[in-house]
Fold this sequence. Notes:
The structure is a single chain. The protein has 162 residues and is of the alpha+beta class. The chain has helices spanning 30-36, 46-56, 65-78, 86-92, 116-120; strands spanning 4-8, 14-16, 28-29, 81-84, 100-105, 111-115, 123-128, 131-132, 140-142, 156-161. The radius of gyration is 18 Å and the shape is elongated. The model has no long low-confidence stretch (mean pLDDT 84).
Amino acid sequence: MKIITITGNVKHAITLDPSVWIFDDRKFELDHFFANMRDVQNKPSDLEIDQERLIREGAVSPPTLKSEKQYEKQKLLDGTFAIRLEPFLKNAEVADSAVKCLFKVKDQDEVLTVSFAKAKDSILCFSKNGKPLTEDGPVHVYFADGSNRNNPIKHLKEIQVI
């Protein structure tokens, strides 16, 4: 089991276990996020809107509870999921004086330093194609602006708030 710690200029040092996030309602599909580059939590997807329109027009039957459950289960088995870092930083109660975050990775002396604002908006990918990130995980860190979309931070072990 790989865990990540949040330490430093926080009231509560906390430990994150990405293996349980698949059950978290705050998760979202990473590909959908980058495709839209918008807040995926507040806007229904285009697919959902199209499906609703087709049902209203009578082109397709409304989904049954059984087919919805089957679709959701399949999505969990095939999806690439992520969660925002911000709620975890909020739980750690970061001090008002925080200005930077250090992303520390295992087996490397190099540390990536980013502003606290950029870190707060970061996205933690914990599942790719329905599988946990076991080889280079436990998470991949993406910046919300997409600047590191092709080269995320991998092998994360600690986030230190300064």
